Amino acid sequence: MSKDTHSKALEGLEEVKGVRIGQHTSVDELVVGLRGCAFGAGRLAKAVDIYEEMLVEETTKFIGIAGALVPAGMRPILADMIRERYVDVVVTTGANLVHDIIEALGEHHYMSSDAAASGGGAVVDDVLLRKQGIDRIYDVVVHDEAFAHLEDFLRTVFEQLDHKRYSIRELLTAIGENLSDRNSILRSAVDSDVPVFCPAIADSMIGLHAWIYKQAGALEVDAFDDTRELIDLFCEAKRTGAIILGGGVPKNFIFQSALIAPRKDGQEGLDYAIQITTKTPEDGSLSGATLEEAKSWGKIGENAKAVTVYCDATIALPIIVAAVRERMERIRINERPSKG
Amino acid sequence: MSKDTHSKALEGLEEVKGVRIGQHTSVDELVVGLRGCAFGAGRLAKAVDIYEEMLVEETTKFIGIAGALVPAGMRPILADMIRERYVDVVVTTGANLVHDIIEALGEHHYMSSDAAASGGGAVVDDVLLRKQGIDRIYDVVVHDEAFAHLEDFLRTVFEQLDHKRYSIRELLTAIGENLSDRNSILRSAVDSDVPVFCPAIADSMIGLHAWIYKQAGALEVDAFDDTRELIDLFCEAKRTGAIILGGGVPKNFIFQSALIAPRKDGQEGLDYAIQITTKTPEDGSLSGATLEEAKSWGKIGENAKAVTVYCDATIALPIIVAAVRERMERIRINERPSKG
Amino acid sequence: MSKDTHSKALEGLEEVKGVRIGQHTSVDELVVGLRGCAFGAGRLAKAVDIYEEMLVEETTKFIGIAGALVPAGMRPILADMIRERYVDVVVTTGANLVHDIIEALGEHHYMSSDAAASGGGAVVDDVLLRKQGIDRIYDVVVHDEAFAHLEDFLRTVFEQLDHKRYSIRELLTAIGENLSDRNSILRSAVDSDVPVFCPAIADSMIGLHAWIYKQAGALEVDAFDDTRELIDLFCEAKRTGAIILGGGVPKNFIFQSALIAPRKDGQEGLDYAIQITTKTPEDGSLSGATLEEAKSWGKIGENAKAVTVYCDATIALPIIVAAVRERMERIRINERPSKG
Amino acid sequence: MSKDTHSKALEGLEEVKGVRIGQHTSVDELVVGLRGCAFGAGRLAKAVDIYEEMLVEETTKFIGIAGALVPAGMRPILADMIRERYVDVVVTTGANLVHDIIEALGEHHYMSSDAAASGGGAVVDDVLLRKQGIDRIYDVVVHDEAFAHLEDFLRTVFEQLDHKRYSIRELLTAIGENLSDRNSILRSAVDSDVPVFCPAIADSMIGLHAWIYKQAGALEVDAFDDTRELIDLFCEAKRTGAIILGGGVPKNFIFQSALIAPRKDGQEGLDYAIQITTKTPEDGSLSGATLEEAKSWGKIGENAKAVTVYCDATIALPIIVAAVRERMERIRINERPSKG
Predict the structure, then answer these.
(1) Is D284's CB within 8 Å of B38's CB?
(2) pLDDT computed for residue C338 by the predictor
């Protein structure tokens, strides 16, 4: 094969450009360096580029939060993202909200035995933990008492509610209004007018205590009432983007809404999508389903910019957010009118 | 180190007994052969032993179904398990019920391009599929028209409903009563008096069409009303066991109910648990959380028999069911009174 | 969209046919039932079909063995596969051969603490094990003394060697000739004239003891001398097939040889390939690389029949072998000339 | 349970401290922020702390490189680590060296079709690539011509060799001496006096061309001769540490040597170990084996500092190196004698 054929077959492809690390590197400098790399590195860099575009363009940004990100320490990042409107709509699991409230009430999560770090996940004695009233989430633990505290708080909130019918989103807003911790996801959402959806709320301690309260008190929460609000958010959006952390119900609920919401411009599906997951597609589960697959459904638009970063979200999320903040700060400074 | 010390350190441990394959082996003969093996093989064998004990002892058996098991062809197995009371309570995702109804209405799922089998997941052109009205789930496809059929059916069901308030479980029973396919999960559940729970039903086409119907018609579905029924099932049980396929909301909902339901005998948590999952625990997500971890919460009892099989459920489930059926049939024959 | 369009878009695709489990099912009956299923189930069934064709057609069958399959109890299956020429050439890691020899010497592997089964991998105290002279491989343990026994045996073997230069394959044959256990991989290979290759033998206790022996005695083992023999096996084959268990060096060595060996028929690459792995392709590692990717290199032929089963090999291998044996036995019976 | 009991059970545990992202964050500032987090984030931070200690203390640092890190763009990072003695000994696969040489010869790797980024791994047509002479490694491609170039180069190197017997390490040094690219792993290793080991070199294009050369020319490479040099490196070390990227033969070869090398201080096993892998332990394979397990063998010392980061190495490695460089630069500046 001649050099010419060689060149022709590779035409239009970009060279892999190896990355080199400087002595004092900002997170975004590192990410920019990864742009020319393949595998996870290249995808991480692409995720930052897509997120930047979502922020620069007028995009309604949905975030799906699954996995125990709050117990792992990602809560302040998520709260800041809401507060500064790096995201506009939250869809999450009940568990993350339960742990958000627990921390807002002053309770803590604790690092479990150090031994887990060597690679094992269960070097602790879970039966002993049970006897001590300690509940484990991989290498994090929390005390039963935190849940007692949660119960008291929720009852107080439920007692204050008007006796009207609530959507799940409205119930979560009411809870958020009763929290005063700026680091709280629910409080930040109230302060920033960001709706929080949690379709599977029955599957959480919030749902359980709501049900207990209902046995004596009055509380009506309809299973389907959130749908309009979420669809309207899609219908009214100029552009739409999703950041999917970990799959599950939040991923599906965002994608389903994106699919059925009529758009002003006649287009369909999300314009941007970033997925951070450790689940791969081979067993057909939704959490590992590719964003390409979502295009066949119309959940993601034909020309959407989309990337999956196969990575623990506690690693990828802080990097992406740090890099994007750095870019937005740079843009802000450049846009500032010069004096004189 | 002397032989004596050698022996002492290994005291009480069982030898790994290698497995040998005969020329015509029943599934259970194979599984029994795997009992002396380690890694996934040993766990698979243990899962069958635990399931057998669940069936022989008087156990209320919960199954959590997540992942696209119906599109993958597991529907007849699941329907038979319900029909023959190999399981007594179902907790599932909305998606599996949607695809169950679609098949019950005579629509089909199809195998996608053969190329996927070599190991890639997306060798098809999803944008083209979109144009053809074909929706992809890994290596399975389904046509948009199946969903149109679903919509018509659900509207008919909703129109027939009394104007009372429904729990999600009751709504699913009403849907099942309108299906006539013996292979249907929902129909089998109606026929066998097995309750089907789906806490995240809003996150499915059933939820969407329920919401659309509500815009004009009357339909009240409370988000929390299922809780009592599920808890009662735990309270009334002599023993409880769970088969968890794939994690997600079904896993958590079963475990949460197991945790809070007061037991007659003062014990807490499930007595048996089998988990089949491809998700591992390292990123702290619920779907990969170990059953040991669940003991720290009291979701699984201190002395419970529990095993996790790290395997695609479309492989492990048929094997486990086939092996257990073989054992139950053997027990049935042995128990049959001899003539004369 | 009309029914006609609907039909057209799905033309040529096969329906997913759900599987149902009978009361006494042979392994192959189960596997045949999985043929119409998707995800892992369909791939497992396809692997059996491909293996059957490899056995029926005149195919030189290479097996790549990585992962601790011998400690896990897969040794008798592997030995039988060699002995009955279900495989014709073995490429493996040093570790599997070390553990094969240890068992052939009468030593055993033991199941570690039962607790591992609930899903954790490291509920044992590894520092304590160290003090007891016990070495752990996930949920299997082996005593240090077994390695002392190995050392004595290997020294005896090395002392008997002629002072000629050995290829690694020849050294392994010499070791096999000194074992008398019919369940041994190395002994079965000697008895059945199946060559065993182990390119990374230096990375094993066999390599280590060979090096120690060389300090005083004479032993020449060339790093590259196996290449011709392996390439010749490809060149002389009518058809070639590979069964890849777990990736690593054995996978690459088989694929590399398949790539460079000139074929009589001018074709290139393997005609059949079955890969059983738990590693997925997303991080670009060889063990997870798809068989499609191997076609771009010419390692697998353009029209090859190839399938990857994403599964723990201790689960998938026994099923595949049991199903294929059942088919071969059926063929054998049918081919038997009828009397009279 | 009283507050006192609550406090007691959690005694000595550290609170999870959520991370917050500033507007311009250096990589190490981010990593320090992750120290109080759980799951992957906490482990990543711990890896940096351990690496820093390895660099500050007098430690012989081994790196095991498996997985296609060179094609992915990690080559300059690895070369710099060698050049600046962030690592002292390299153990790698043949493939990484092949691709290192190819790039040193001026050939390139290219990013494959963008579509891979959405999450699928094989949206390209590998049979077409084959026809174009293009070889694929996940989302990277390289042209066949690069391998022709490699062949010419290796032949030239082999022709220059003295006709003495070589260890694999010596052969790799000879190759490195013939490369002039400062970004090359092999060249950097020569320049910095860092030995490169590759026990499975026969399983690579280097091995293949060495064998071809041997058919006519004289070249003796012993399979076991590297052992002494590697063991001596352990014996002479004051402290030892390993950075394991991706498992495989490099991991085992380092660990095996650590196990058998007698230490001056009578201790055994590595003092530090950092493992970056996407493989988890559940199927018993070495690449996913925990570092705890390695303690049972004595490969890692009882009191060693060890952490596994479950992450794509193309993401974790650049972060760890950037953070550690920042720390070392800070230490260097602080240690600089002030003027006057």
Answers:
(1) yes
(2) 64
pLDDT value of position D262: 83
Alpha carbon B223 to its chain's center: 22
* Domain-wise residue ranges, chain C: 58-113+125-314
Closest partner residue to B16 (CB to CB) among C108, C307, C310 is C108
What's the CATH number for D49-107+143-322?
3.40.910.10
Chain C closest-CA separation from residue D47 CA (Å): 20
Question: A22-112+125-335: what fold?
Answer: Deoxyhypusine Synthase (3.40.910)
Contact A11, D113 (CB under 8 A): no
pTM of the model: 0.95
Residues 6+ apart with CB under 8 A from C12: none
**Tokens representing residue D15 in the block:** 């609170």
What is the CATH number assigned to the segment(s) B58-107+144-322? 3.40.910.10
**Start-end of H helices in C11-84:** 27-34, 39-56, 75-83
What is the dotted CATH code of the domain comprising C58-113+125-314? 3.40.910.10
pLDDT in tens, B199-236: 999 999 999 999 999 999 889 999 999 999 999 999 99
- Contact assessment for residue C316 and residue B315, using Cβ atoms and an 8 Å cutoff: yes
Tell me the residue type at A134. I
Q: With CB atoms and an 8 Å threshold, state whether D295 touches C256.
A: no
Residues above pLDDT 70, as percent of chain C:
94
A299 catalytic, yes or no? yes
D226, closest residue in chain C (CA to CA)? C202
When pLDDT is cut at 50, 70 and 90, the band that residue A85 belongs to is: very high
Determine the Cα–Cα distance for residues D36 and D49; give it in Å rounded to an integer.
Answer: 13
Is residue D33 within 8 Å of residue D44, measured between CB atoms? no
**What is the tens place of the pLDDT at every residue in D234-252?**
999 999 999 999 999 999 9
Nearest to A261 by CA among A239, A245, A285: A239
Q: Which alpha helices (H) appear in B57-201, and where do they start and end? A: 75-83, 94-104, 126-131, 144-160, 168-177, 185-192
| Chain A environment of D275 (Cβ under 8 Å) | 119
Taking CB atoms and an 8 Å limit, are B315 and C314 in contact across chains? Answer: no
